[in-house]
Amino acid sequence: MSSQHIAIIGGSSGIGLATAAHLLEKGYRVTITGRDAAKLQAARQNLNNDIATVTMDAAAFGRLGEAFQTIGPVDHLVLALGGGNGAGPFATVDLADVRKGFEQKTLAHFACAQACLPYLSKQGSITFVSAVSAQAAMPGTAGLGAINAAIAALAPILAVELKPIRVNCVSPGVVDTPWWDFLSEEQKEPTFAGFAARTPVGRVGKPREIAEAIAFLIGNGFTSGHTLICDGGIRLGQ
Ligand SMILES: NC(=O)c1ccc[n+]([C@@H]2O[C@H](COP(=O)([O-])OP(=O)(O)OC[C@H]3O[C@@H](n4cnc5c(N)ncnc54)[C@H](OP(=O)(O)O)[C@@H]3O)[C@@H](O)[C@H]2O)c1
User: Which molecular function GO terms apply here (predicted)?
Assistant: First the structure.
């Protein structure tokens, strides 16, 4: 059992929430954050109230200092926040939406890591959650790929600049989470079936599988500057 404290920014849903559940089972103390207080409350009840919650907007850059002061000292930071802005065919994708994607994900991850530093243990770690759009050549993901590749680029640079703090990144493939709720249930099924057919393991991922990859990077003290691709092989482009 560990008494170490982990803050998960974007921990009220999907990958972040599964990571919170997995880390609680491993005996860590966990704080989850998100913008929607009701969602955080529901997540907390889902986890038997065994968790601290802090409502914060990771893209409200001027208020991050206050948010991390509220969270307090942390051993490990996980950045699991992000939405779907920036998706679409390169020829027509709305630049304002791409800009929003950078602000809501790349800059938000960057700013949270920066604001957490005064509270982060030197023996601890930062884990970014990027996306396989950074590694796979999928049409329609130029914006998402650029947004997520920029995040993956941070891991090796910060692993050196912030040493001995370890800095890593997980790059998930397609995972069944509320991220996909912009699709109706009728649309989701054929969409996931299409991704499954292009994925060597033959299915989309489960949030728990990404949580396990994040837990490995938190727990393994000799891994730093690494991007762990956890995508069922979809980047290999069948
Ligand atoms: N699902 C996939 O197929 C997939 C694949 C590759 C990469 N990813 C990446 O994995 C990460 C997690 O995605 P997910 O699938 O778990 O999505 P999700 O279920 O929609 O969860 C996103 C979480 O981030 C929080 N969040 C979003 N914007 C925020 C902000 N500005 N400030 C604070 N919290 C914020 C959300 O809570 P609030 O809305 O209440 O703020 C929620 O807790 C994202 O970065 C996504 O790009 C997902």
Answer: oxidoreductase activity
